[in-house]
Amino acid sequence: MEQAPRDPERQLQPAPLEPLGCPDAGLGAAVGKEAAGAGEEDSGVDTMTHNNFWLKKIEISVSEAEKRTGRNAMNMQETYTAYLIETRSVEHTDGQSVLTDSLWRRYSEFELLRNYLLVYYPHIVVPPLPEKRAEFVWHKLSADNMDPDFVERRRIGLENFLLRIASHPILCRDKIFYLFLTQEGNWKETVNETGFQLKADSRLKALNATFRVKNPDKRFTDLKHYSDELQSVISHLLRVRARVADRLYGVYKVHGNYGRVFSEWSAIEKEMGDGLQSAGHHMDVYASSIDDILEDEEHYADQLKEYLFYAEALRAVCRKHELMQYDLEMAAQDLASKKQQCEELATGTVRTFSLKGMTTKLFGQETPEQREARIKVLEEQINEGEQQLKSKNLEGREFVKNAWADIERFKEQKNRDLKEALISYAVMQISMCKKGIQVWTNAKECFSKM
Amino acid sequence: MEGERRASQARSSGLPAGGADGESPGGSAPFPGNSGSSALLQAEVLDLDEDEDDLEVFSKDASLMDMNSFSPMMPTSPLSMINQIKFEDEPDLKDLFITVDEPESHVTTIETFITYRIITKTSRGEFDSSEFEVRRRYQDFLWLKGKLEEAHPTLIIPPLPEKFIVKGMVERFNDDFIETRRKALHKFLNRIADHPTLTFNEDFKIFLTAQAWELSSHKKQGPGLLSRMGQTVRAVASSMRGVKNRPEEFMEMNNFIELFSQKINLIDKISQRIYKEEREYFDEMKEYGPIHILWSASEEDLVDTLKDVAGCIDRCCKATEKRMSGLSEALLPVVHEYVLYSEMLMGVMKRRDQIQAELDSKVEALTYKKTDTDLLPEEIGKLEDKVECANNALKADWERWKQNMQNDIKLAFTDMAEENIHYYEQCLATWESFLTSQTNLHLEETSEDKP
């Protein structure tokens, strides 16, 4: 991971306020003890602390969620959930942490932060937010945003989001991010003052570029295909997983009925009664064990979902490249045509169609002075154009270089995280099997005593 | 001599027909040699049997036949009952082995039906040979059951599988249905063979050994449909009178049967539902593994991990399939058989009540001098014996049935638990070995990284 001293050229568009690199405002990141998000590995922490640029370590956690009511923009009452973000600074020497900041934010503010980052760091694969609405739900799980389980999972997802930003070598230095963690009031105004919404590329422009670009870097084309595949396969997986969970729930819960009937039956049996009764109890235990099992599995699903949304972040970077490339191509094309015009005017040959040419044909030849003037204008434009093309070229190459560096970083992170997620899935299955063995062994003993 | 012969035959049919030496007070039973009544019986044989076109009335061994087409009027003496009760199940001395297999479809111009092959191996003297092979259809089994119920109204006859299952059955001859039925029929015959009394029933023997034409002609003998109908009418009439004097122990028995029936029906439903849920889980799981393989195609670094996960899921899938089949073999048929048993039991209670009701009505008639009361005391005497017989038969068989039920249920549920344990153990092994391989890989990788 690159830990170069801050390099203004690496920031394609400068952040509105100076990027933080000042030692006293040092913003490193360490994995908070409350972190439940996936994939923050020790190796990340080590790299950060070894950098003597940062003097302090900071722990971030989203520790609580609270239902609030308030008035929205249209002065109507609404209910929303607010999340408590706590920042602690960890003393290097003794590892004690001190609470330095704590404030409440709601989901829409997280969204605002992310949108800002997307505009100002288009070459970065910006970490995604947890889903706004519950998707890939299986029947028992509620799709209600106010459902406490959903809120809890979202809390973890938001914490994960902040930790990902905080551990990103570039994003962590952003001032708006710092203010998000530290400045409760006025933060929204501050973000809006950056005018980032105006700087955002229009969707239409981006779409146009995607279709019309002639020579994008092949790596980005491949990356786009990859992200489409990733999105499609993870969606499919999540859908089937939800169905499997649903069915598994059914199997477990039906066994609960045995408990009730065995208990009733045991009342009329003399010898079998005790065995039936206690076996019935174990059936109840079995039936209720599925709730925790599936709750754990939801966390696994969330880990996969993060990468589902990351696919979109990858595509955003590809789009930006296409846009820049298209821009470059258009500029080059424009320059070429101006040069040609100039040449024609100078030599007197008219090869290209131009309105001026037509009108002169219709209304008479222009004077040599007029022609001279035009040539001069064109030459100026050509000069300007050449400068612009040069800088655009440079920008483009810089973008590709930086973006690709982040993409490599992302790929490694993704491989680590997904592998870990799959392993944790195996661990969950093992735990479920062990529970099953225990319950059924107990039940078998009861049955054999009947 | 005839008496002796009768007695020995009777013993072999499991229902010692009261000592030939007149111990039984009632001598007007249709004993062999009582030409009047056997003529009556034969005259009653009308061809109302569904199978046959011919109206052949074949009187084969009338003596044999008469003894076994016991009408409920047949009294048995208390002394002979003692012999019966002493007959216990002795598994070591099992001398009758029956298998039901090879379902075959037969097509005639009128209908299509299935026959099952029945192979009987025995060392019993009263069988002409030691091995028999016959083909029987469901109707034949129904006939046998009917005969057994007639001969032993208060014994607990094993249940037959249903005629048809309404739910979800499109075609009568679906493979699963046939197989399930075959297994149940096998169970049915073996249960009869294991029953201390029923195993010696003559109709049972004929069922196992007679050729098709022999059986069909034998079937025609015995009380025909009209007489059966007559009995039913009498039964309904007497049950309408209500059982006022049902003894305490039979009240308890009845309560048990009612509750048991409720519970076993519920358990049947629950078990079927579990099977259904497991099947649906299996269907979804089948899709789950392959997605990981699909994914591995676009991931370079995760190929092996994803493929391994897919492998684990597929193995768990197979384990689920095995669990399902275990359930359908060990648990479902047993539970279902006891559902049918519970219906049987209710029938047995009714028949017992009906026998008692007959006695009660006669006693009532005597008490209130409703009809000509000369013959009544004699009839009442016979009926009292009959009631006592029936009650004792039921009591003995009840204990035996309860014992069997407990064993069967215990075994079935223990098997179910065992299947589940095995399933989870298999899945555990699969995932644990995956985990080990991943940690080993990780150790390899990190040791490579170390300088």
UniProtKB/TrEMBL annotation, chain A:
Compartmental location: Early endosome membrane
UniProt keyword Cell inner membrane, yes or no: no
GO (cellular component) term, any one: early endosome membrane
Start-end of Basic and acidic residues biased regions: 1-10
Keywords: Acetylation, Endosome, Lipid-binding, Membrane, Protein transport, Transport
Region of interest called Disordered, as start-end residue ranges on this chain: 1-47
Cited Pfam families: PX
Gene3D superfamilies in the cross-refs: Arfaptin homology (AH) domain/BAR domain, Phox-like domain
Main location: membrane
GO biological process, one term: positive regulation of histamine secretion by mast cell
Ranges of compositional bias, category Low complexity: 25-38
Membrane topology value: Peripheral membrane protein
PX domain: residues covered: 61-187
Keyword Cell inner membrane found: no
PROSITE patterns per record: PX (PS50195)
One of the record's GO molecular function terms: phosphatidylinositol-3-phosphate binding
Record's subunit section: Heterodimer; heterodimerizes with SNX7 or SNX30. Interacts with WWC1/KIBRA. Identified in a complex with WWC1/KIBRA and dynein components DYNLL1 and DYNC1I2. Interacts with BIN1.
Purpose of the protein: Involved in the regulation of endocytosis and in several stages of intracellular trafficking. Plays a role in recycling endocytosed transferrin receptor and prevent its degradation. Involved in autophagosome assembly by regulating trafficking and recycling of phospholipid scramblase ATG9A.
Family membership noted in the UniProt record: Belongs to the sorting nexin family.
Protein name: Sorting nexin-4
Automatic annotation (TrEMBL), chain B:
Residue ranges of every copy of the PX domain listed in the record: 94-215
GO cellular component: early endosome; early endosome membrane; phagophore assembly site
Record key words, sorted: Protein transport, Transport
Region annotation Disordered: where it falls in the sequence: 1-42
Keyword DNA damage carried by entry: no
Membrane topology of this protein: Peripheral membrane protein
GO biological process, any: mitophagy
Residue spans of biased composition, Gly residues class: 16-25
SUPFAM superfamilies membership: PX domain (SSF64268)
Segments traversing the membrane: none
An example Gene Ontology molecular-function term: phosphatidylinositol binding
InterPro entries: AH/BAR_dom_sf (IPR027267), BAR_SNX7 (IPR042131), PX_dom (IPR001683), PX_dom_sf (IPR036871), PX_SNX7 (IPR042130)
Subcellular location: Early endosome membrane
PROSITE patterns to which the protein is assigned, alphabetical: PX
Listed PANTHER family: SORTING NEXIN-4 (PTHR45949), SORTING NEXIN-7 (PTHR45949:SF3)
Assigned protein family: Belongs to the sorting nexin family.
Subunit structure, as described in the record: Heterodimer; heterodimerizes with SNX4.
Annotated protein name in UniProt: Sorting nexin 7
UniProt source species: Macaca mulatta
Lineage: Eukaryota, Metazoa, Chordata, Craniata, Vertebrata
